[in-house]
Amino acid sequence: MRRDTIFYQLFQQSPTLLFELLPQPPDRANDYVFEAIEVKETTFRLDGVFLPPTTSGIIYFCEVQFQLDELLYERINSEIGIYTYRNRERFSDWQAVVIYPSRSVEQSNTNTVRELLASGRIQRVYLDELGEVQTLPIGVGLMVLTTLEGDVAKTEARRAIDRSAGDRAIIDLISTIIVYKFGNLSRKEVDAMLGIELEQTRVYQEAKAEGESIGEARGEARGEARMVTRLLSRKFGNTSDRFTERIQQLNVSQLEELGEALLDFSSIADLESWLSQN
Fold it and tell me: In angstroms, what CA-CA distances link 264 with 189, 201, 225, 268, 274?
């Protein structure tokens, strides 16, 4: 499961989410900026860096660790040392947060970093100890959702959708998490399983917004055609020019029918068959 991608999206959407995990969030937490930074000229890469709004603030380094790594803390210490050496003027102090699914995957031998851990500079978060998904803030709940499996994951995903208040970014992220967990299911099958309507997804909304914008400038039919073409490209990859030209010749009513019909298409042959009948 590509958890790094999911956590990156979570922090990108809401940088303050990290501070919901900490007992003492920093001042002006809402003003922090999240970045994923590669430490140049090394093989190190920091999962996330939360930059303070002023140079007198604390910088936060974040690491999401779902697999056992017996040199994790040594690596983090090295990465932070290099970053601090090169960017010392950007902050006054630092903290690190390591997010684990549970204590079972934490590094066992910490002799070489025991003073560092004892100092509190590195705070450890165990997702399975935070509580039930539905009792947590929605962003933290999605972090915990990444640790769940099977029917439990499905149930909590549906509950999270109910709590999302229709937020398309959250709904799309929930769907993404479940897609990664159930690799044998398509995105369409996962959305159907979770009760997500096409109109709720980010892809549809982006395509619709683009279609509406183009429709205002060039006419409703052309805007609808652009939206349908984009949805088809998302579903089957780039379609050939002959299909694009045929779609552009359809009227608004036909384009609306095609937009609904493509939900049931399983291959490009279904598109060709539909076009031949319309």
Answer: 11, 16, 18, 11, 11
**By the 8 A CB rule, do 244 and 227 touch?**
no
| CA distance linking residue 170 with residue 162, whole number of Å | 11
CA 37 to each of CA 34, 52, 188, 249: distance values in angstroms, whole numbers, following the listed order:
10, 15, 33, 47
CB 182 within 8 A of CB 190: yes
Written as tens digits, the pLDDT of the chain (278 aa) is 456 678 888 888 888 999 999 999 998 999 999 887 665 444 566 788 999 999 999 999 999 999 999 999 999 999 899 899 989 999 999 999 999 999 999 999 999 999 999 999 999 999 999 999 989 999 999 999 999 999 999 999 999 998 988 888 888 888 888 888 887 777 778 888 888 764 455 544 555 555 555 555 445 566 677 777 777 776 676 666 777 788 888 877 787 788 777 766 777 888 888 888 87
Q: What is the dihedral of CA 219, 202, 50, 15, to 10 degrees?
A: 100
| Single-letter residue type at 28 | R
Number of helical (H) and strand (E) elements in the chain, helices listed first: 12, 5
Amino acid in the structure at residue 99: I
Which residue from 2, 4, 1, 26 is spatially nearest to 16, judged by alpha carbons? Answer: 26
pTM surpassing 0.70?
A: no
Contact at 8 Å (CB) between 19 and 26?
yes
- Going by DSSP bridges, is the β-strand pair 58-64/45-51 parallel, antiparallel, or unpaired? antiparallel
φ, ψ (nearest 5 deg) of residue 121: -65, -30
Count of C-beta atoms within a 10 Å radius of residue 177: 26
List C-alpha distances in Å: 34 to 8, 48, 127, 178.
9, 7, 21, 25
Residue 64, beta-bridge partner list: 99
d(CA 208, CA 214): 10
